[in-house]
Amino acid sequence: MADILQQKKAYKLFKRYDGNPILTPENWPYPTNAVFNPAAAKLNTETLLLIRVEDMRGFSHLTVARSADGFTNWEIDPTPTLEANQSSREERWGLEDPRITWLEEQKQFAITYVSFSEGGPVVSLAITKNFKTFARLGSLLPPEDKDACLLPRRFRGRFALIHRPIVRGEAHMWISFSPDLTHWGNHRALIKTRPAYWDCHRVGLACQPIETTQGWMLFYHGVRITAAGAIYRVGLALLDLEEPWRVLRRGDEWVLGPRALYERIGDVSDVVFPSGATVHKEIDQLNLYYGAADCTVAVATANLSDCIDYLMSCPEVKE
Ligand code: BMA
Question: What pTM was computed for the model?
């Protein structure tokens, strides 16, 4: 029988912010269909979100919103911050689902995002200091690939990228390595879908990996297909700190799933899709930013030490 205490722990980890959704198409400075799947970072004293904005053609671009407390009074850039380069065939149909990592060596932010090429979705990289000017490094790996994020530093001399290629129709998370952020190799499967579980159909990285003394705390989304369509939920795993290709633990249950109305009803119903987080160690808090039903942006908070405590009570992964 499933461990009831463990399920209770997982269920209680996150608390939705009462003011959700925090960003909607209605409060956007220009006409949009949907605002969702935000990347998040702390910049100076502010919380910065880089949000996927879908226009009325169905194409997406990325726009910055800033807030002093991470919950209210968002200042949204009046025009798109990062748009598809129309002359690039790799970006023909827009930019989607960014993640942000602070690169310790470069002292810059890395933004990994999905660019929609004519040949399918590919993972692309841009580097920035200020979210105003960007160096675009282009696409990293061939399609079909999504849900990518860099880790903040090198491991045995190489940068590490977590991503989610689709191979033979299977959607598992992989990790790849590069000496220079351009040439990628040593590809290894990292976290796979689990038959019959809530994450049986697809898995993909959620927010950027969070460094803890126990290892890299990894939020990921898992998909199950039901008679009513897909349900996107969120689970937790732990990667080794120095050898992030080793999965140490993985929760059996999801820690956040669609329950609130704004998560259940939208352009794509029953979706919680986190793609950014901010860590506030001084108050032991994690803010998890997510797209709700592919329409709006919402946030849920958790106690960092509760997340680690939960992870350490999850089953060990035997390779
Ligand atoms: C995934 C991605 C996300 C989206 C989700 C639910 O495949 O494309 O952008 O939020 O599906 O529709």
Answer: 0.98
